[in-house]
Structures are given as structure tokens and as C-alpha cells.
Amino acid sequence: MQALPKTTLPNLWRVNIHSRPNIDNLASILRPYIPFSLPVLGTLFSGDVENNTLRIWSSFPPTSQPPLVFSLVTQIPLLNGEFRYFCSAEASTRTPGQLEEDHVLSTFRVLHRVIPPDTARGPNGSILVGSVNDIWYPSLKPHSIVKHTTAKYIRPPLPIRTQSNWNDSPHSDWIITELREEDIGLVLSKSSLLRTPEYLRSRLPFSVSLRQSHSSMPIAWNLLTSDGSTGMLHVEPEYRGRGFSRWVKAAMFRKLDQMYGTDDEEKKGQYPYARWESCNIFADNCKSIGLITSLEGWKEGWVSHWLHVQ
To answer: 127-133 and 82-87: which strand pairing?
Structure first.
């Protein structure tokens, strides 16, 4: 990896997450850029602001309106210190030019200077930035190592057609619940990605699971991750091929609709109250791709990378 070039960006502003007007202002700035802004916008509404762990930096004063080209970065300490990044140029229909590329490279150079000293570092002092839009990969490639690459799938808001509870089960032999503290060890043991008990504990209120009784262990689950995408879908091998992944997904989306539902007319059409959903799937996971593309409204969006950026 090569070191990032010298910066032309004067500063990154740390956003005070205890100020609700700051969060509301950032959300209003990011919403017009949906779906491209979802990896950062989602972090504002997935529990880490409320539990005081999210860290946010902006390339403009956080109480002001941004310039045409701007960046927002969030860090999720509970998710192994991973970062999420968005640049306004991602929503453009044209290929990024030198101005945008220089802005992105400069943003990461400054970010290395301002992040807290407790940030986990990877190879050559790099930081792990997840869900990076593929349009930045040519610029970042000389300065980064790819951890993994996924396809991002997107679903725009759908009408809420049912008033049933999120945990209503399609069959009396099964019950739907949140994941529980005693499930954490099992869930971690089945994950292909490194997660900590603390992270899973923070996700319990944002999870669904399928089990045979209140006293049994789950046989399938799904959850809302800290960046607002759904992830960690799992069905135990002996229960696969019976449609349980669809049950769990349906319960997950019902739960999110009900968690974020509002009677406020001004908010009803806005994310997160109007639910844009996303998920990241490895290209070789044909079963998950088949499942998500069979569900109403889901389409492939773009390629995303998890990069160790130096």
C-alpha cells in the first residue's frame, strides 16, 4: 500500500452526537442522496447514537449546509471500530473527476489524523472502512487492501399492508422472538464475520429469531446491523429448505416497520420512518441472492468494498 497523498482538505469536524439538531441536520442533508447515502445515514438511526457510541465527522461545519462536494464519516466502535463513508459525488450520474477523487483521498488522510487513539488499526496502520462504494476503489486501490467485496441490494419503501404484530408466527409449531443474551454464543459461533459479544448484545433489540418454544435455542435469525442494513441471516443446516429464511426476513421487515413507524405526517415519508432497506451479499452466496431477489421490491444496487485504508 502507498501512503495517501498530502491533503488539500482543511479540516474534518467532529459532530456532537448529543445534540439532536446536529443529527437531524445531517439526516436532512443525507436523505436527498438516498440510496447511496444509506451506509452513513443508517448509522444515525440504528441505536448507536442512543447508546452514545457512534462517532461522526463531516467535511463541513455540522450545523451548516454543505458545499456541492462533501463527505461524512461515521465510526462504529462496537463493530470492531469499523468506519462508514459517504461522498455526495456518489449520487452523480457521471464518473468522478479529479476534484472528487482528490477530495476523497484528502478526507481519508485527515481522518487518520483526527480519529481517537483507541481506534483499531490493521496492516501498516490502516483503518477498516466498510461498504465503500465501488466508484472510489480506483482512487483508493493504491492505498488500501481489500478485506472483502459484496453486492449491495436495495429495497425502496413499500406500503405497509398488514397490522399483524412483527412476532406473529406463520405456524403454531414455531414462535418468533428477539435474540436473547443466552443466544449470543450460538450466533457468534455461526458467523463467518468476526463479531464481539458486546456488538451482538447491542443488536438484540434489533433482531428476530425463530424457535420451537420460549425455552429452546433459535434455529434461524436475522438482525439490523449498526449501519442500517440487515445482516447475519442464518438458518441451521438441518432446517434449511423449509422456507424459514423467508419467515425470518418477513418478521424482520415487519419489526422495522413497527419500530420506526410514526403518526407524524412530516416524518412519514422520510427515512428511517419510510423504510429503505439494504443488505450486503457475497457474490458467491447464490442462495441469499436468490432469496433477496425473490422478495418484493429488492434490486441489485452497486458493488461495495471493505477496505483497510492506509
So the answer is: parallel
